[in-house]
Design goal:
This protein is mostly helical. The chain is built from 20 helices and no strands. It has one domain: MFS general substrate transporter like domains (Growth Hormone, Chain: A, Up-down Bundle).
């Protein structure tokens, strides 16, 4: 029997475990396009466009993008608290998500459409402004969206299933936008032509708009039927510092937050320089780079789909460590062989090795992208057990903060590094131009080995993570007991 939206909300409110229907998970998953198909996919194109095609110094491009990420990271906790405490006929989450749709669409289009003839300073201002505005608009949707996902399922394993649906939809959205770019707007050396970028930006914006709208329409009755929060007497500016202090009082949250920062710094640095390395070190044609991306996405789908099977046998932190290990291998094996002079294919000969490398990275990132939010939802349960309050909005805002602040640092480091390695500013104007070998060496070092070293730190952190399958079962039993007692029902579950 298919569970209705109102029945689902009743299950959540009363305490028993709720498993969402496939249709509910599909509609929910479409919302991931805002983050994964938005700036996560676009930022590599944006960096290359402004730094190579438009000639803005790499440090300025990195600064403009990192300002957007830093500002976005700062507003995430406010959006999370706001989302946790909204009372409306649409529920807590949907009002912010709906408001974000037109803002996100406009900003993604405009970041790719700077007016012609801008001076370097004005070009920097344009990129920084629309980066800040666009990132904030996406957060306005994404923070309540991921919090809604934690409310969509209560079971330890079912939460992983929800994350898998969400991650898969995000991957497919990124694939659609990537394929659209390389096959339509950037074919035949188009990455170095300015004319293709505005059309690409508005096409990507239209895809995001359609997915976000479908998500809100598909879950409107379920989200509206969820329990409303208690009335909050204090304004946000007074309650938010206490709420943030409270979530950091949970050691599990602190560990997940710190490890996320370290992981995403490494990922942001590497991903930002992908196009530079593919074009100027491995000398791949623009239209061939998409096939590396497709190999990565196939690996990502396998990683996302395989994560629940691994989590059925292993602890979630073990799955995370395995995923980080695969990412580190992606950043070390071929790059190290190239730096040592053992293996240096170029052009068509480099395509297959890069595909294999990216395929492995995709599997690793798939494990990581499922484990992180699933572990954060478990930590939110632990928070309720410890402090008698639900803080999903702030917990996932914290994960979003770590992601965006760290990626911002990674992007900034990439921009500064381009200037430090003396990457030629005019090389992007000539298709097929050769980069001096010493600059190639420095570029490969900051693209591969350096992010790998950073990721090792994150891997070591997970040795201290303490929420195991058994521990979560104890927490869940205690929460069910408390909810039953609060509702005046039978008290049959053990306390923790």
């Amino acid at each position: 029997m298919v569970t209705s939206d109102s029945q689902a909300a009743a299950h959540v409110a009363d305490g028993p475990e709720f498993r969402p229907t496939v249709i509910q998970k599909i509609f929910y998953s479409l919302g991931q396009a805002a983050q994964s198909g938005g700036f996560d996919t676009a930022v590599g194109f944006v960096f290359f466009y402004y730094a190579v095609v438009l000639g803005l110094p790499g440090s300025l491009v990195g600064a403009a993008l990192s300002v957007g990420l830093a500002f976005d990271a700062l507003v995430d906790p406010m959006i999370g608290s706001w989302s946790d405490n909204i009372k409306s006929r649409l529920g807590r989450r949907l009002p912010l998500m709906i408001a974000a749709i037109p803002l996100t669409t406009l900003c993604v289009g405009l970041v790719f459409s700077p007016p012609a003839g801008l001076s370097p300073l004005l070009l920097f201002v344009w990129l920084a402004f629309w980066s800040v505005t666009g990132r904030s608009a996406i957060s306005l949707f994404h923070v309540p969206y991921v919090a809604l996902g934690a409310e969509l399922a209560t079971d330890y394993a079912e939460r992983t299933s929800v994350v898998v649906y969400r991650s898969t939809a995000g991957i497919l959205a990124g694939l659609a936008i990537t394929a659209l770019g390389y096959s339509v707007f950037f074919a035949n050396g188009g990455l170095q032509r300015a004319g293709g970028y505005p059309g690409f930006g508005w096409a990507a914006a239209a895809i995001l708009c359609a997915c976000m709208t479908a998500c809100c329409l598909g879950l409107r009755r379920y989200a509206a039927a969820l329990p409303q929060p208690n009335q909050i007497a204090q304004p946000m500016w007074r309650r938010l510092p206490f709420e943030v202090k409270e979530i950091f009082a949970n050691p599990s949250f602190r560990l997940l937050f710190a490890s996320a920062v370290v992981t995403y710094v490494a990922q942001g640095l590497n991903a930002t320089l992908n196009s530079h390395a593919f074009v100027f070190v491995w000398r791949l044609k623009s239209e061939d780079i998409q096939f590396i991306t497709y190999a990565f996405i196939v690996g990502l789908l396998l990683g996302v789909g395989g994560a629940p099977k691994l989590q059925a046998r292993l602890e979630k932190k073990t799955v995370m460590v395995v995923g980080l290990g695969l990412l580190i291998a992606n950043w070390l094996v071929i790059q190290g062989s190239w730096l040592l002079g053992l293996y240096s294919p170029v052009g068509d000969a480099a395509l297959a090795p890069m595909q294999i490398n990216s395929f492995v990275a995709g599997i690793g990132l798939g494990f990581v992208s499922v484990a992180f939010p699933s572990m954060m939802a478990d930590a939110a349960d632990e928070h309720e057990h410890l402090f008698d309050r639900r803080r999903e909005g702030l917990y996932f805002a914290g994960l979003g903060f770590a992601n965006k602040a760290a990626v911002g640092v990674g992007v900034l480091l990439a921009g500064i590094a381009l200037d430090l390695v003396r990457f030629p500013k005019d090389i992007g104007k000539t298709v097929g131009a050769l980069l001096p070998h010493d600059v190639q060496v420095r570029l490969v070092l900051i693209w591969g080995p350096f992010p790998a070293i950073v990721a090792v730190i994150s891997m070591a952190m997970f040795l201290a993570y303490r929420i195991t399958r058994a521990r979560h079962a104890e927490i869940a039993a205690a929460l069910r007991l408390k909810r039953a007692l609060d509702a005046g029902g039978p008290a049959g579950a053990p306390s923790v």
